[in-house]
Amino acid sequence: MKRLILVRHGESEWNKLNLFTGWTDVDLSEAGVKEAYEAGKLLKKEGFKPQMCYTSYLKRAVKTLNEILDAMDMDYLPVEKSWRLNEKSYGAIQGLNKADTAAKYGDEQVLLWRRSFDVQPPALDMHDERSPRMDARYAELSDEEIPLTESLKDTIARLLPYYNGTIMKSLEKYDEVMVVAHGNSLRGIVKELKGMTNEEIIKFNIPTATPYIFEFNNEKKLEKDYFLGDPEEIAAKMQSVANQAKKK
What is the pTM assigned to this prediction? Predict the structure, then answer.
């Protein structure tokens, strides 16, 4: 049996403030650190033993992975980082409060920017201080690769080469692999694994710091998937994610 463990990062400081984050490099909140560590304790308790880990370039995902590995006493595991696992770029609305933006533009418009499959939020200027072009960690990316805004469709398109060529390929070598990333980049992986439609995936909410397990046979055919944890708590977390961008 092969297993892929997906984990969305713990609560970030901007999650707590209900701000659009995207590629902005925001740290974990105190609650986020705690829930990441608890996710690691749960994985250890349930007998999971990943052999290879992947995460994004953003500290909220990197630190979540570090907390998980610390709780599992597996800090020694190899970790590979890729910008392709970064969150969807929310463009010019990065840093804005979700509820306030909904009050200004309407729930329907903000829902399209936040959750539609192929509608992009307003784009950043390439030289805006929030642009990845101004960040040294993305210096090797071409201007064409730099996302100034993204839809979910765009996020999945830049994710899939890495998912297929690196993450899934690593399951040929390892029996258990862990990916700690973001709500929308993980949605791309889930959509691919479960063959979900565009409409299904935009309604699918991934709770923070909750291990999502995919089990495969040795031919990498998916046999089952499930979240680890209390079902009622997981359902409440999912609903909380869904409610974030509604005007007050």
Answer: 0.93
Question: Residues 140-178: pLDDT tens digits?
Answer: 999 999 999 999 999 999 999 999 999 999 999 999 999
Q: Is 7 exposed, middle or buried (0-12, 13-18, 19+ CB in 10 A)?
A: buried
CA angle 230, 28, 247 (to 5 degrees): 75
Cβ neighbour number for residue 125 with a 10 Å cutoff = 12
Task: Tell me: pLDDT of 245 over 70.
Answer: no
Per cent of the chain over pLDDT 90 is 83
Secondary structure in 3-state letters for the chain:
CEEEEEEECCCEHHHHHCECCCCCCCCECHHHHHHHHHHHHHHHHCCCCCCEEEECCCHHHHHHHHHHHHHHCCCCCCEEECHHHCCCCCHHHCCCEHHHHHHHHCHHHHHHHHHCCCCCCCCCCCCCCCCHHHCHHHCCCCCCCCCCCCCHHHHHHHHHHHHHHHHHHHCCCCCEEEEEECHHHHHHHHHHHHCCCHHHHHCCCCCECCCEEEEECCCCCEEEEEECCCHHHHHHHHHHHHHCCCCC
Residue 198 is which amino acid?
Answer: N
CA distance 180 to 2: 17
Active site residues: 9, 87
